[in-house]
Amino acid sequence: MTTTSDRPVETTTNTTTGTAGTGRATSSALHHEAAEGRVDVAWLSTHLLGRWADLRASARATAGESAFHKIEGQSKEEHRERVLEQCRALAAKGQVHLAFPERLGGGNNPGANLAGFEELVAADPSLQIKAGVQWGLFASAILHLGVEEQQDRLLPAAMDLSVPGAFAMTETGHGSDVAAVATTATYDPETQEFDLHTPFRAAWKDYLGNAAVHATAATVFAQLITRGVNHGVHCFYVPIREVAADGTAGAFLPGIGGEDDGQKGGLNGVDNGRLHFDHVRVPRADLLSRYGAVAEDGTYSSSIDSPGRRFFTMLGSLVQGRVSLDGAASNASKIGLQIAVTYANQRRQFAGPGTDEVVIMDYGTHLRRLLPRVAETYATHFAHDRLLDLFHSVFSGEQDTPETREDLETTAAALKATSTRFALDTLQETREACGGAGFLTENRITSLHADMDVYATFEGDNTVLLQLVGKRLLSDYARAMKGITPGGMARYVVEKAADAAMHRTPLRRAAQALADSGSVRRAAGHLREEETQRALLTERVDAMVEEVALALRPAQKADPVKAAEIFNQHQVALVDAAKAHADLLRWEAFTQALAGIEDEGTRAVLTTVRDLFGLTLVERNLAWYLINGRISSQRARTVTSYIDRLLVRLRPHAQDLVDAWGFGPEHLRAKIASGAEAERQDEARAYYRALRASGDAPVSEKSQKKAAKRA
Amino acid sequence: MTTTSDRPVETTTNTTTGTAGTGRATSSALHHEAAEGRVDVAWLSTHLLGRWADLRASARATAGESAFHKIEGQSKEEHRERVLEQCRALAAKGQVHLAFPERLGGGNNPGANLAGFEELVAADPSLQIKAGVQWGLFASAILHLGVEEQQDRLLPAAMDLSVPGAFAMTETGHGSDVAAVATTATYDPETQEFDLHTPFRAAWKDYLGNAAVHATAATVFAQLITRGVNHGVHCFYVPIREVAADGTAGAFLPGIGGEDDGQKGGLNGVDNGRLHFDHVRVPRADLLSRYGAVAEDGTYSSSIDSPGRRFFTMLGSLVQGRVSLDGAASNASKIGLQIAVTYANQRRQFAGPGTDEVVIMDYGTHLRRLLPRVAETYATHFAHDRLLDLFHSVFSGEQDTPETREDLETTAAALKATSTRFALDTLQETREACGGAGFLTENRITSLHADMDVYATFEGDNTVLLQLVGKRLLSDYARAMKGITPGGMARYVVEKAADAAMHRTPLRRAAQALADSGSVRRAAGHLREEETQRALLTERVDAMVEEVALALRPAQKADPVKAAEIFNQHQVALVDAAKAHADLLRWEAFTQALAGIEDEGTRAVLTTVRDLFGLTLVERNLAWYLINGRISSQRARTVTSYIDRLLVRLRPHAQDLVDAWGFGPEHLRAKIASGAEAERQDEARAYYRALRASGDAPVSEKSQKKAAKRA
C-alpha cells in the first residue's frame, strides 16, 4: 500500500473536473465497507490518456473549446453550416492530418490520429462524423485505394477541405452487403473512360455524409466491368458538383442527381444524402488503382489474384472507422456516467433515518444501475487501447501481415459492436437515473443518445459484424481441428464426451455443491480469483464455438437450401458466441491493464472494479454456466450477493472512478453535474436547519395526532 | 378449426393497412413450419379495439388526420404553438371531455376517455402529453380534488381550454417524494387567504407542461399550514399569468416567476417550465377542498382522519396518468414493430441459395429480435385492457372501494413501469432492425423513441413505482402470514424448509433430469402447457416475495439506521419481485384474453404467441429457475430450442400479427413501411432477371477464373 490509501475519503477533492463530489462521503445513513486502496485521480486520469497522451490531451482540449460545441436546438441547416466551419478550423489546426503521408504534410501516425479523432465526440458527435467522412473515409479512400500519383494529385484538396467529399459506398438497396452494390462502372476503350451508372432506384447511393449539400466530389464504389467481365467492387474518384467562386458547392454536374436524407434521429450537423449517376463518364486515371487497374485497351490487372481476397483487402484498408467508433462510444459512455454519478452524489430524495434525505447514489438500486456500467466502461476503455495499438502497428507498417490485419478486423468488429450497443444502453440508463432532469437537453444525455444511436448500425451493422466475428471463431476452430491426426481426433472425441459428462451431469454438480456447501464466503472468494474468472469466460467461448461448429457440420454435405437453413438456425448462437468472445477480450484487456497501474492504491480499487466486471459477465450468463455445469447452483447463488458486496465496497470510490476519465465541465456540459444540485440541496438543508432552530416550524399533523394519542 | 385455417398463407392480403406484405410468403429459401391456424386480421383488429371500440376507433381516426400529426424538424416554438392549436381542435371536438361530469357537458365515462386519449400518441406524443396536462392533470385535479362548487366554477374554462393550466406538483428538489415538496401555503385568518411561498431554489416547481408559455393558471401543490400545524400536501387553484384580450397568456402575475425548461430530449411540442411564488395570496375558496378544508378562522377539517391515507387518496385520484401512459406505451411499441416487421418482410439482403436475396425477416437473428417483442406487445395490450376495466370500474363508481383503488394503483404502477421501459427497448431494437433507414426521421422510429423517453420517469419514476409494487406484495404477504395461527406457523415453517430442500437440492434436480432424459420433445411439450407456465411464473413471484420478506425481518427489531441499511440491501430484490409480478399479470391477462378469441384459427396462432411470451419470460429468468430448482438443467436446455421452434412456426404470421393492431399508413408514417421497399426490390430483381435473359450480363471474374481452372 502506498500512502494514498491512507488518505481519508472525505477530504479528497476532485482534481480534474471541478465538479465537487460533495455527496461522496456525506451518506451518513449508510455504512460503507470501502474497497482497499484509494484512487489517485490525477495520476489515473493522466495514465488513461494512453500511448499518445499529449496528442489526445490536445484533442480533448480542442473538444472543450466552445467554438466546437454543439448548439442544441439549432435547425439542421444551421447545424450543418456550423459543423462545416468547425471542420475548416480543424483542417487549419492540422489535427486531422496526422494519418496522412509526411510528403503531403501529414504526420504518418495513424494511431495518434484516431486517438485525437475520437475525442471530438465530446464536442459534437456530428463534428466527429463529418470529420470522419472527410478525412477517415473520403480522403482515406484516396490514400489507401489510390496509387502515389493519385494521392499526390487528389489528397491535398481533400486534406485541406477545399474539396469536401462524400464516401459513396452504401446504396439504398445494399448496406451490409457491399459486394452486391448495383452501381456499375463499365470501361469504354474508345474514350478511355468508365461509364458510371445507376441501373435502378435501389442502387442510389444513400446515407452519405456531405452528399446532401457540401460535397463537390465523391469516392464512388461500383462494379468494375471491362471486356465483358465484372471484376467486383472498385472505387472511383468523381467530381459531383460545380464549385462556386468562393469554393462552396454549387449545382450537380451533368448526369448526377441526388436527394437530401433530411432530418435524422441525431447527427443533424451532418448533411447525409443520396446520389445517383446517369452514364457519367469517369476518366480511366480516376479509378483508384492500387488494387486493380485497367489498361488503355481495357485489360484488367491486380496485384491480388483472388477477387474475394482483393475485395476484403480494399474494405479492410478502411477499418479505421470502426476502430474510432469504438473509442468514441467509450467516451460517450464515460460522459453519461460521469454526469449521472456526479448528480447521484449530490441529489437527495426521501427521508433517511436521520434528518437529512438520502443521497441517491447510496440506494441499492442506484448502485446496481450505475456501478457495473462504470466497471464495464473501464473494460471498454482498456480494450480500445489494445485495439488502437493493433491498428497502429498494422497501419504504420510496423507489423503489417495478413494475420495482424485479420486480427485487427475481427477485434475491431467485436469491440465496435459491443461498445456502441453498450454506449446506447448506458446513455439510456444514465438519463433515467437522472429522472426528469435527465430528459432536459441542458443536461446533455438525451442529445448524446440521439447522436450516438446510429453508431450501432453504421460502419457495419452490429449484428452483421458479430456474425463476421463468429465466422472467424469458427474458422479458427476448424483450423485447430485440421491439425489433429485421425488418432488425435478419436482421443479428442472421447475427451469431449467426458467433458460433457463431467460438466452436464447432476453428479458433478452434486459434488461441487457438496464442496461449496455452507461456505458462501469461500465460494465467493473463489469467484474473485483472476484464474477462475478467466477460466469461466474462456471456457464459455470455447464451448459455444464448438457447439455451433458441431451443429453446422451437417451443412457441409447438405444441398444449398438445406445448408442455408442449418446456418440460419444457428445464427443466433453464432452471434452469442461472438459476444462472449468480445466479453473475454474486454476482460483480458482490463486484467492486462492492471499490471500497468503503478499506484498500488489505485490498482487495488481497479482490481475490485475488474472483479465487478468479471462477475457481472458471469451473472449475465448464469443460466449458461448452470446448464453447462460450469457453476453449481450453490455457487451461482453467491454470484449476485458477491456483486452486491463489491458494489458497496466500490461505492466510496464512485466519484473518483468517473472523474479519472478526465472530462471537465467543458466536456460534460450538464447543469445537473455542475455542482448546482449540491448548492440547491445545501440551501434546502440550511433552511430546514434554521427553521428547526427558530422554534417557528409548524408541527406536522401526524406528530400532533401521535402526541394527542399518547396524552 | 374454422375454414380460415385452410386458406393458403400466400393469398391472404393485408386488409387493414394497405402495406402489402409482399415478402411474407416469398421466402423461397427457407421452409416454414407454420403454426396451426391463421390470423383473421380484420376480425382481430376489430376485436382488439376493446370495450369502447367505437370511441377508440374514432380517436384513432382523429390521430390519423394530418392536422394532428407532428411535423418533424420544427423548432420548439413552432411545435408548441402547433400543439396548442391541436388541443383547441380537440376541445372543440369534445373528445377530451368524456371523463367530466355530464352536468358540465362531459360524458362521465372515464374508461372511454382514456381509451381515446392514449390513441393520440400515434398523432404526436407531444399532443398526447399536452392534452394530458390540460385535461388529465390540471382539469382532473379540479375535478377530483375540488368540491362541486369549485368544479362548477373552475372546470368549464379548463375543459374548453380558455384557461390553459399547469399541474404544479413536482419541484426541482422533489420529484418522486411528493410528500416532501417544500412549497408552503400558510393560512392567514386576517385576510382569509393562503400565503403561497417558495422558500428556496430547490422548491421551484419544475418540468410542468404548459408552464413555460401557455398556462394562465395552475393547480399548485403545497404544504397546507394553518394554526401552526402542517396538514400535508394540498392542492390550490392559482392564476399565474395575465390573460391578453385575445385569451392568450401574458406576463406573470405579481409574485410569480418562472423559467422555460427549454429544449428536451423529445416532446418539444410541450412547453415545460418552472414556477416559483413569492408570498402569493390565494383566496381560501381556492384551496381545492374535497379532502381537506380550512374554515374562516383557520380550523382544518377533513373527511379522512389519517394524514397519510388522505395524502395517498388525493394522489390516487390522479392515477389515470399512469393508466394512459401504459396504453400509449403499448401503442408506441406496436407502431415500431409494425414498421420494422413490414420493412423486414420486404427488404432483402445477401444472396440466398437461389437467385434472389434473402428477405431479412427470414433470418434467425431477425426473428429473435422482433417476434418475442410482438408477443410481449400482445401481452402488454391485453394487460392494459384489464387495467382500463379496473380503472373504469373504480372511477365510474361501479366498484369504488379502498381495495379496488389499491389494486388499481398497484396494477397501474406495475404495468406503467413495465410497458414504458418495454416501449423504449422495442423502439431502439426496431430502429436498429431497420438499419440506417431506421435512423432517418422519415421512418418515424427515432422520433417516437425521443418522445417516449420521458415516459419512463414521469408520472412516477419506474424504479420508484416498482418499489411501490414490491411493498404492496410484501404487505399482502404479511397479511397472509398474519392469518396463520402459531401452530399453523410452525407447520408453515416446516413446509417451507421442506420446499427449499425439495427445490434447491441436487437430489431433486437429479430425479427430474432423469425423468426428462433424452426426451427433449416431451420436456418442451410440458413447457408449452398453460399450467406449467402459470406455475413457473407464479412460484417465482411467491418465492421472491417471501425471500425478501424473510430477509427484511431483522429490520423490524433494528435501530433506524440499521433498518434502513437492511431495506437498502434488498431494494434490488424487491424491484425484481415487482417485475416478476408484472410479468405474471401480463401473462395472465394474455391467457385470459385467449378465451375471448372466438375465431379458432386466430386463437390457435395467438396461443402460440402466448407460449412464446411465457417461454421468453422463463428464458429471461432461467438462472433463477435453475438455482431455485424449479427447472432441471436438462429441461432448461430445451427452453431456448423450443422458443426457436415457436419463432419458425410464427414466422408466416408475423405480418398478420402486427397488421392486426390496426394502425394504418396514416399512423405509421414511415416511408420504409409504405411498400416503397418492396417496389424497389421488385424493380431490382426484374432488372437482373432481364439482364440474365438478355445474355448481355457481364461474367464475374470469379466464375471466369473457376471456368479457366476447369479447362
Descriptive overview:
Chains A, B: Its cofactor is FAD. 2 copies of one chain form a homodimer. With 711 residues, chain A is α+β, with helices and mostly antiparallel strands. The first copy, chain A, folds into 2 domains: 54-318, Butyryl-CoA Dehydrogenase, subunit A, domain 2 (Beta Barrel), CATH 2.40.110; 321-659, Butyryl-CoA Dehydrogenase, subunit A, domain 3. Chain A is 55% helix and 10% strand. Chain A contains 26 helices and 16 strands. In chain A, strands 1, 2, 3, 5, 6 and 11 form a 6-stranded mixed beta sheet that branches. In chain A, strands 4-10-9 form a 3-stranded antiparallel beta sheet, with no helix packed on it. Chain A has a two-stranded antiparallel sheet with strand order 7-8. In chain A, a hairpin with a 4-residue loop joins strand 2 and strand 3 (193-197). The longest helix of chain A has 32 residues, at 364-395. The model of chain A is unreliable at 1-32, 505-511 and 513-521 (pLDDT under 50). Chains A and B meet through strand 6, strand 14, helix 9, helix 10 and helix 11 of A and strand 6, strand 14, helix 9, helix 10 and helix 11 of B.
